């Protein structure tokens, strides 16, 4: 059936306009010739819009044209034929560009990698945040609900979870035909775009589209400032693709346009590139577009684009990446390396184990670029460097300079006086000021005030307030966009990208002062925080930065001793710890034995368990061999093991649950009796007498329970009296709550001091020995360092 309406094809319009021009008519005159009451049908005809069939044919007759040649084809025929043709063209072009896409996007090589690796082998699925984190209207109090270093169950990994629900990256691209993918430096934006190009080429994703990958920096700097269609034609010409074919694909919406790195475009090219991108995406609106850009890098408005953010890696993504990384490394190993014993191979499991045991390092792994750095560091020695300050320094150098330099990117320096060294100094100043105030999140105006205070002292700095304000705002945005070390967590609220970096720069500010009096004051201020758990990493990092760390460690030892110096009862407790440790003959470091008895008394005391004896970290730090015996239970073969068994018996007798079989109590007590008979016969005899008073629970549990309910209190007091008399343990110290808290702080402060001693810090042998010899001793014994 013939169509009721006809309209001119593009070519038909051109022919009609030529004929119209030859006639020399106006549109009103042509309307009169075809008996139209107005010029409206004539206007529609030349615009290619549908008009009534008889008017269309009459216009063509008056212009001396064959209407069948001017009219657009029947839709059914056009769609059927064109659909077949365009699908064939898509497949043809995909085949032609596949080698080019594979060459440009198929591998990755970053940082100090010695050779490129296949992108598909290492790629880890990206997750997307549909709400940009820095644009949420949240308060600092709301952010602290998720991430508060002072909370009891603080998780450093929580900073990467201050987000809403994530969606897979591929799903986001499928859902939004025009997508702006934002992300922090090193978050994997380019890798994601390259992966899209590869998967599209392999027909695994958008199999009906042709992927076109464009590095925007190359587009911006191309000779003759080509527009997008011309640039695409130019880069694909070597693939045998013609400009006509490209225009046809664009016109039919058959391309996946991947525009990488808007932030990498130079300032002088930025406005032109943004305008061309907007016009290009508007003109060819039925194509799929994905653009990547660093957060806060550009002021732009792409009205038709949906903005999303690349999410930090979660634990599953970190593990997936590490597994692929070390599998690739194993596959690339030489023949010699391939026959190594399995125990000597560096595996992802070992990497993950070490990562789990180092929360500060694990936090960095949420950034794919820093995760790559960690994998490179780990594969060299099968462990992370002992000098964590140096590791963090390399991570920061990667973000401040190395990442861009490796890719040949020179960014516009917003404030010319800020060299890399001065940026570190600025970040250190911000870090210390905010860390001391416990401001893990801080408002934009606070950050800008710190920046203004810093840059006003630089040569040629603007002196007026308005200029300083503008400069400080620009510097803040630059630190976020170019380096990603400061991050906008919510609208107008900033933090360091990782708590690890906040701690590192705080320690750097304290430890790198070139003025001796200022350094001394900084270290004295630092040791005032020795009982604040959230300062732990700062102490460790500062100790590693100082050359030597003698003075800091001596200050720490003095501060530790001051914690309990004024309390007579706590001094008596430490005197007992010293005397008890000297009364046993064991081949371990005296400080480790003192730590053993400190824990033994403190942990066994009723309602005193802030320190977990089953995880004696201080013992391990002081003497690993004693720690291993404690953990394995082999300590019971030694003199101190008898004290352990007796304390365990006393503890279990107080907490005996008669609702269950009393085996734990019986086992500890009977074993203590046997050990006492061989080590100290008089004690063994006394314990045997107490043992004889107990009904045998194996013979009749009900009789034992009845007896215990009536006689347990008196029996326990007799047990304690025997143990105190013969072994001088299980004293009832009756500490107050304040004293318990002081002992808790004292123990943890000693543990931190020993951690610093055992870290990769440089400390003289004399000071090291002096500190270790006086650990956990009363003041009178420790006066040598006071």
From TrEMBL:
Which residues belong to any copy of the NACHT domain? 177-294
Q: Which Pfam families match?
A: NACHT, NCH2
Q: What is this protein called?
A: NACHT domain-containing NTPase
Q: What organism does this protein naturally occur in?
A: Aerosakkonema funiforme FACHB-1375
